[in-house]
Amino acid sequence: MAMAPTVKVVLGSLSFAIFWMLAVFPAVPFLPIGRTAGSLLGAILMVIFQVITPDQAYAAIDLPILGLLFGTMVVSVYLERADMFKYLSKLLSWKSRGPKDLLCRICLISAISSALFTNDTTCVVLTEFLLKIARQHNLPPHPFLLALASSANIGSSATPIGNPQNLVIAVQSKISFGSFVTGILPAMLVGVLVNAMILLAMYWKLLSSQKDEEDATAEIIAEEDVSSHRFSPATMSHSTSLNSQEWNKMGTISLQSSPNVNGQKGHVDNTLRIRANTLDNEIHRVSSGASDSARIPIESKEVLSTDVSFQRREETVPSKGVASVASSRDVLSVQSLQGKEKWKRMLWKACVYLVTIGMLVSLLMGLNMSWTAITAALALAVLDFKDARPNLEKVSYSLLIFFCGMFITVDGFNRTGIPSNLWDRMEPYAQIDHISGIAVLAVVILFLSNLASNVPTVLLLGARVAASAAVISEADEKKAWLILAWASTVAGNLSLLGSAANLIVCEQARRAPYLGYTLSFWRHLKFGVPSTIIVTAIGLTLIR
Q1: What spatial distance separates the first Cα and last Cα of the chain, rounded to whole Å?
Q2: Where in or outside the cell is it found (predicted)?
């Protein structure tokens, strides 16, 4: 592709540079507007500077990718409501045999979870829980945080829905879901294992200095901490809520806290009436009589208690009998309602899991990925049989807007001719039918993914790498796409700024209440460089 006019090249490069700066450093002091606004600013500048026309800008937005991203986020929200991530958290502490066992579990569970529910979601859900485990067992947090972030990145490479760059590759390459998985899964599994071994080798002494036996009490506390939180993966936040056991406990306390028959009975019956709405007129009379007696001044009660105690006992025996029978009936009614609600929730959770499994099976069968994800999201909204607005509000629409701006900005930069000319010079040395060519291509992808982020790298290189490989053979074209997916994803482990998952773990750990921990750039880099190089190299030999 020939270079565009000089003015367009300069203005297009300036627009892309502003986008890159705000994408990598969203809180830059002189323009702290964030990634989303930064991507829109880059897109608008491309149009204002006439690098691309408005029609070309609209055409640059890839709707299938946005649809797939939206659908997977909605499904993740409903899976969170169905306690899927709470169960994953419990797996980490269930019968754990020490720090090393915990670290290996983190690597495995975060990798599998990321492949199915995206790496960002996994990091949002598990970060605070890992900090709690580390605190309860007096363990250093950073080995476990590094295991979470790095394994989430590696695991997300195995499926098209694991991370945003894989979504782009799957849609642009038209590789089926099943072919994508079978092509990268061996590399992912070996990569997770090698990554865990590197972590154990680096922190063996540090983990060995801690007690290698699990404290059962602390494990129970950890599970209770998880069950008391409801995470919102799409919005990277969580809020506390009561589970069914806590509600039952509150109900039991309310029923048992009635020492005074006359003074307190009215309050208890009233509480039961509010919850069950089944009290009859007899209970109403008893409650009214008890509440009237409760309004008598304390001094009057003391005087009357010695004079009319026998008469009161005679009068209240029938009332207490009626109240006792009715109260028992109301308790049974409340318990019946609770039982029905429990079964309804279990049935709903089973439906959520079945719909999710159906979505994965449909993707494996080769159905359209975007519409499959959207259909699954809509099915979950219908099965919920409630207003879907609270769930849809948890979707990260800022991420969708960021993608729209990024599509336009990258397309404008491509039209300057700079990426094509750079690739023309590098292409002879990056042919994937030679080991040296694969190594050169991987190095370029690793460098650009950490310089310009992995999704822009895929958008810039994807079509060019695939076209170059297609000249060799159709199989090599597919392999080129998979190499791009593998290298751009694992490249996120190189530095703290390499992927959004790393930043999520860092920010979640730093802001965790009472558990705050700062994962430094250099500490991550010390582990990230050797892990990225070794895992990438081994994985490249296994991609088919």
Answers
A1: 31
A2: Cell membrane
The number of beta carbons lying within 10 Å of the beta carbon of residue 206 is: 13
Distance (Å, rounded) from C-alpha 467 to C-alpha 193? 33
C-alpha 321: how far from chain center: 55
Residues 131 and 506: their CA atoms lie apart, in Å, by 12
DSSP conformational letter for 471: T
- Please report, for residues 123, 446, 473, 490, the alpha-carbon distance to residue 524 in angstroms, rounded to integers and kept in the order given: 16, 16, 39, 14
Q: Average pLDDT of each block of 10 consecutive residues along the chain (544 residues)?
A: 87 94 83 90 96 95 91 91 84 78 92 89 84 85 93 95 92 92 96 96 83 42 40 38 37 37 40 41 41 39 39 45 60 75 90 94 91 95 93 90 93 92 89 91 92 86 92 91 96 86 83 78 91 96 90
3-state secondary structure of 231: strand
Give Cα 195 to chain centroid, integer Å. Answer: 22
Residues across the chain: 544
Pull the structure tokens for residue 372.
Answer: 């499959």
50: number of Cβ within 10 Å: 12
DSSP 8-state secondary structure symbol assigned to residue 495: S
DSSP category for residue 210 = S
Q: Tokens for 105, please give them.
A: 């579990």
Which residue, 544, 389, 414, 398, is CA-closest to 481? 544
Structure tokens at 13: 């490069």
Reduce the DSSP state of residue 374 to 3 states and report it: helix
Six token digits for residue 140:
């250093």
Q: Helices 164-173 and 369-384: crossing angle, nearest 10°?
A: 130
Rounded CA-CA distance 118/501 in Å is 10
Enter the tokens of residue 230: 């409801």
Predicted local distance difference test score (pLDDT) of residue 136: 82
Secondary structure string (H, E, C) spanning 154-202: HHHCCCCCCCHHHHHHHHHHCCCHHHHHHHHHHHHHHHHHHHHHHHHHH
Burial class of residue 477 (count of CB atoms within 10 Å of its CB; 0-12, 13-18, 19+):
buried
Instruction: Return the amino acid letter for 387.
Output: D
**How far apart are alpha carbons 420 and 426 in whole angstroms?**
10
Q: Over the range 241-255, which residues count as b (16 or more CB within 10 Å of their CB) and which as e?
A: eeeeeeeeeebeeee
Local structure of 229: helix, strand or coil: strand
In degrees rounded to 5, what are phi and psi of residue 240? -80, 150
